[in-house]
TrEMBL record:
Protein name listed in UniProt: ArnR1-like winged helix-turn-helix domain-containing protein
Organism: Spirosoma pollinicola
Highest taxon listed in the record's lineage: Bacteria
Length: 87
């Protein structure tokens, strides 16, 4: 499967466990677009949702498969790479 730039952007935004609002801030995509892509990425196993406590906001995390897809995307599209956050 080949991922789109929008999917890649969402995956990059969730590398360090991000809430919906954080993904929105990092990508500048509208809420409907983010919701659409997050649901799709969850369904194909590139993201996982963790909400350990019902009172907490859902956090979206990159799976190992998602990391592999980021690497594949960056090899195939070196001009479209989003710089990784380094802490």
């Amino acid at each position: 499967m080949i991922i789109t730039f929008a999917q890649y952007s969402i995956l990059m935004a969730t590398q360090r466990c991000a809430t919906f609002s954080q993904v929105e801030q990092q990508t500048s995509f509208d809420r409907m677009m983010i919701d659409y892509y997050i649901m799709g990425l969850l369904n194909i196993g590139l993201l996982k949702a963790s909400d350990e406590n019902a009172n907490e906001t859902t956090c979206y995390e990159l799976t190992d498969l998602g990391e592999n897809y980021i690497d594949d995307y960056e090899r195939a599209n070196p001009d479209l790479i989003i710089k990784r956050f380094v802490s």
